[in-house]
Amino acid sequence: MLQLRLASLARTQVAASSLQRRTLWRCSTLISSSPSSLLAHVEAQHARADERPALFVLSKNTPQELVERFQTALLPPPPASTPSPIGCISEVMPRAALPDEVQAALPNETSEPFSLSLAYHVPSSPSARLIPFRSTLTGRPPIALGREIRPELQHDAEDDPGFAAFLRGEKWGFGQAKVDEGSKGEDIEELRGVDSSHVREVVALTADRIEPFLGALSSFPTAAKGGLVGSSTPFHSATHIPFTLFFGRETVSTGAVGLAVVEPNYTQPTAAKLSYGSLKAMGKPFEVTSSQGNIVLTLSNQNAARLLLDAVNELFGTSAQNLSAVQRSEEKEKDFYAALFDHQPSLPLDLSQARLVSKIMAGAPSRGAMSIDTEEEIKEGDYLAFVHVPPASASAPASAPPPADSLNFVSIPPSDSLPLFRAADAPSSGPVIELDSFLAMSENGVLATPALENAAVRVCKIEGASVRLQ
Q1: Are the beta carbons of 314 and 307 closer than 8 angstroms?
Q2: I want to staple 165 with a disulfide (CB 3.0 to 4.6 A). Which of 61, 139, 172, 350 is the partner?
Q3: 3-state SS class at 362
Q4: What was the pLDDT predicted at 302?
């Protein structure tokens, strides 16, 4: 079996500097054109050592009959002296999104390789420990328009504190996800009693409807936080569950699984780096002068939707009426985004200082209204900038290998990968390529925290956005 190890120089540099700083993780991402070769590599590797990963993600094109074998191979041997790992099924990594060295090592016909990413906890001090957790906190179901909601699928008002407050005649805000502090505490059971200042890092893999869980993470303001929403698996799971999360031997489809790195008196905070990929600003930022909920009505006392249209026309260099049919079609398919700031930002725009970057869903120049894809209230006095993905980089993530022993979560477009049921449906052998970093991708977004004081964790679905923990 061929095994190619990349970024060995980076690994050497990390080892040389280990006296100054020890990383929290030892990582690898295994990539192959054959799921059988990938499984054989993992089984052989763990047969020689008792160490097991704390975190893993498996690409959803893995044949269904092999998924349980991967899960079993990653469990600690009895008697279990280490916590059982957490994991999830993730989106297939597009070949074009992989480092150039990996693409060169894969067979030419492999467009959607199989992958398994692993992270082993490396305590940075004798007092450091790892706490796996499983959260069952879930929020409101997605809004369904024009669909019959069966009584057994309707949720109680208790699931929606904002709606419950409305029914009681109390004041509640747009997108309110929880009632006032102290009226109803929601937390992560395994982390009860842990001093929040000792939690250095939290990594989570989730399903959807996770607003209460994200709210619970605010109890750890000094911790670096990152992760992703698992890939949708109704067709790629043997049991047709919407999401596939692993907690030891358990397989669950709701809530979240995660890891908390707890270390009293740590001196070097872990950094969580959020990147919005290749997003670029379109013009100058404007002050929000009129809004309702997630609807922006006027910007700098001007028609908000008209300003967006003007920015789009300037981007194309002409009015939409003067574009060719192909260009007009491209314009309609293109996504545009709004970056919201608490204060007037300086130019050039630094998106890391934005409170929120989210997709613009619709706009009506005749009325001026522009809808932003968020449940957060957009307030007068905020500053809004239009941003977009340049055409040349819309589907071209960075091709350089991530830093050694870093956790990397990336938001990508959904794949067209068809489900595989048997190992015989895929190549029986192939090279196994190993990166010395953890790389996980999802079409449902990443868990990101803006680089602002007391910023809340949110789901970022912008294609190309990434979160890195190291």
Answers
A1: no
A2: 172
A3: strand
A4: 95
Buried b (16+ CB within 10 A) or exposed e, 88-123: bbbbbbbeebbbeebbebbeeebebbbbbbbbbbbe
Token look-up 């192909």 returns 326
Residue 442, H or E segment: strand 438-442
pLDDT (tens digit per residue) in 367-378: 778 999 988 889
Contacts of 18 (CB under 8 A, 6+ apart): none
What digits encode the pLDDT tens for the residues 96-138? 888 888 998 999 888 899 999 999 999 888 889 999 999 999 8
Residue 16: what residue type? A
DSSP string, 30-99: EEES-HHHHHHHHHHHHHS-S---SEEEEETTS-HHHHHHHHHHTSPPSS--SPPPEEEEEPPPPGGGS-
Distance separating alpha carbons of residues 363 and 370, to the nearest angstrom: 4
Q: What burial letters (b/e) apply to 252-273, b meaning 16+ CB within 10 Å?
A: bbbbbbbbbbbbeebeeebebb
Burial zone of 408 (CB within 10 Å; 0-12 exposed, 13-18 middle, 19+ buried): buried
pLDDT per residue as tens digits for the range 258-304: 999 999 988 777 778 999 988 999 989 999 999 999 999 999 999 99
> Burial of 445 by CB count in 10 Å (0-12 exposed, 13-18 middle, 19+ buried)?
buried
DSSP 174-242: TT--S-STTTS----GGGTTS-GGGEEEEEEEE-S--HHHHHHHTT-TTSEEEEEEPPP-TTTSTT--S
